[in-house]
Amino acid sequence: MEATINYLIQSGLCLLLLYLFYMAVLRSFPRPAYNRLYLLASPIAALAIPLLDIPLPFIPQYDLAPALPAIQLSEVAITGYMPEAESGTDFILSAATIVGLFYSLAVLGLLARLGIQLIRLKKLVHTSTRLTALPGKATVLQTENNYPTFAFLNYIFVNHQHHLTEQEKQQVIAHELAHVKLGHTYDILYYELLTAILWFNPLVWLLKNELRDVHEYQADASVIAAYQPTVYTSLLAKEALHSNGVMIGSYFNRPQVFKRLQMLQKYGQKTGMVRPLLVLPLILVLVLFFSAKEVTADMATLTSPLNQPENPEVKSISEAPGMGMVTVTAPAPENPIQSTSQTPTPAFKEPDTNPEKPFAYVEQMPEFEGGQLELQKFLAKNVRYPKATKEAGLNGLVVANFVVEKDGSVTNVNILKGLDEAANAEATRVIQATSGKWEPGQQSGKKVRVSFTIPLRFNLQQ
Question: How far apart are CA 226 and CA 229, in angstroms?
Answer without folding.
Answer: 9
